[in-house]
Write a structure and sequence with these properties.
Layout lengths: L1 E8 L3 H10 L6 E4 L15 E4 L1 H10 L2 H5 L2 E4 L1 E6 L5 E5 H4 L5 E5 H12 L5 E4 L4 E6 L4 E5 L4 E9 L6 H5 L4 E17 L6 E7 L2 E7 L5 E8 L1 H9 L2 H11 L7 E3 L4 E10 L3 E2 L2 E3 L5 E2 L7 H21 L7 H28 L5 H16 L1 H12 L19 H4 L4
Parallel strand pairs: 1-2, 1-11, 2-8, 5-13, 11-19
Antiparallel strand pairs: 3-7, 4-7, 5-6, 9-10, 10-11, 12-15, 12-16, 12-17, 13-14, 14-15, 17-20, 18-19
Helix pairs in contact: 1-5, 1-9, 9-10
Organism: Alkalimonas mucilaginosa
Family: Belongs to the UbiH/COQ6 family.
Keywords: FAD, Flavoprotein, Monooxygenase, Oxidoreductase
């Protein structure tokens, strides 16, 4: 039997980030992951995420950005348009007076960099290839029974175990969910023309196609959201036929394309836990919410969850209060649920707004995009929120601010 302060279930980007944020607080931390530990390997870009400025600031504070930046692609421009229409809107780092609008990163590279830092923390113990057999709560602790027979007792349990969270399901926490009736088709393609560090997205009546720049100036990662039957049809096409289909859907913006990887299909579903806290258990990141990849904000939203939780725990300890205080956990739930709800509603409105091929709605969308592109003030505010420069952000990721004390600053000493 092992006693600890906090157990984190899930060693994805959110769980590892939380462990790294909390380690300098000298709490005893157990990290439980059903899969293997991340192994050093070259980036394959099979699954990618778009990191915004808030996430970049978080990773810079944690000390992993220098290593991570060698494996990612910065993009200086975004180009969004409606197929077969005049509707178009563009964003650039230059007009925002920034070096980049964001970065496309291999998900596994993020895990590798985080894990290398976590391994240096003497108060974090990792249990990989470990499955949970049973969860039970008492007044003083949460008990996890692992398949190895080991029993972990902790004062606080954080569920960072993804959209199909075992912890959430075991505790029967209520979940609101709906199927987007889309599958995301993900692949890497080689382009004839260089991508010019530009992220592109074209909207078709049956769903959007995103072309995300990779470190190679002639490679892009695509995320093509289409109805399930169409997605399966595209996945089954011969490689050359599939490449031609993507070229046509992208309106040849990068010239003829060639398939350079396997194709993955990912069902798209919205999940939102109605309750993020139960007793001594708290949900973060995809265990609490999963959203449409339309604006590439899923990774950023989850990272802000763990940064917020770490901030509140740090504040409790600085004030010599109990870090597992129910009042603090309620504050976390109110704070992050509000942010998640706003983004889920925005993505749903955006998705529905660009669906359908009827002529009048299509014309109105095109006019709206054109007007927004010309409205400098409103366009700037939208971008500031998407970039992570505005909103109710954790202190450690706010632009121009650095916390005077606490977990994030101290993490440099690990």
């Amino acid at each position: 039997m092992q006693h600890c302060d906090i157990t984190i279930v899930g060693a994805g980007s959110a769980g590892l980030t939380l462990a790294l944020l909390l380690a300098p607080l000298k709490l005893s931390i157990q990290l439980v992951e059903k899969g293997p530990a991340p192994e050093p390997a070259a980036a394959e870009f099979q699954r990618v995420s778009a990191l915004n400025l808030a996430s970049q600031r978080l990773f810079a504070e944690l000390g992993i950005w220098p290593g991570l930046s060698e494996q990612l692609a910065a993009y200086q421009q975004m180009d969004v348009w409606q197929a077969d229409s005049f509707g178009r809107i563009g964003f650039s780092a230059e007009e925002q007076q920034l070096p980049a609008l964001g970065w496309i990163c291999d998900n596994e590279q993020i895990r590798q960099q985080l894990y290398q830092r976590v391994r240096q923390a003497p108060n974090v113990q990792c249990h990989f290839n470990s499955r949970i057999q049973r969860i039970s709560q008492g007044e003083q602790n949460v008990a996890l029974q692992l398949d190895s027979g080991e029993l972990l007792l902790s004062r606080l349990l954080v569920a960072a175990d993804g959209a199909n969270s075992f912890v959430r399901e075991s505790l029967q926490l209520p979940l609101t969910h709906w199927d987007y009736q889309h599958h995301a088709l993900v692949a890497t393609l080689t382009s004839t023309e260089p991508h010019q560090a530009t992220a592109r997205q074209v909207f078709w009546p049956d769903g959007p196609l995103a072309l995300l720049p990779l470190p190679d100036s002639r490679q892009v990662s695509i995320v093509w959201s289409v109805p399930p039957a169409r997605a399966q049809e595209l996945q089954a096409l011969p490689a050359d036929d599939f490449a031609r289909a993507v070229t046509a859907a992208s309106q040849s913006v990068l010239g003829p394309l060639q398939l350079a990887s396997t194709r993955q299909l990912i069902p798209l579903r919205m999940r939102y836990a109605n309750q993020w806290v139960q007793g001594r258990v708290v949900l973060v990141a995809d265990a609490a919410h999963s959203i449409h990849p339309l604006a590439g904000q899923g990774m950023n939203l989850g990272l802000m969850d763990v940064a917020a939780l770490a901030e509140l725990i740090s504040e409790q300890l600085e004030q010599q209060l109990e870090f597992d205080c129910p009042r603090m956990l309620a504050r976390y739930q109110r704070w992050r649920k509000s942010e998640a709800q706003s983004l889920i509603l925005a993505m749903e409105s955006f998705k529905r707004g660009f669906s359908g091929a009827a002529m009048l709605p299509k014309l109105l969308r095109s006019v709206g995009m054109t007007l927004l592109d010309q409205q400098g003030g409103l366009k700037q505010r939208i971008m500031a929120l998407a970039l992570g420069n505005q909103g109710d952000l954790p202190k450690c990721v706010r632009p121009g601010l650095r916390p005077a004390s606490g977990a994030v600053n101290q993490s440099r000493a690990l």
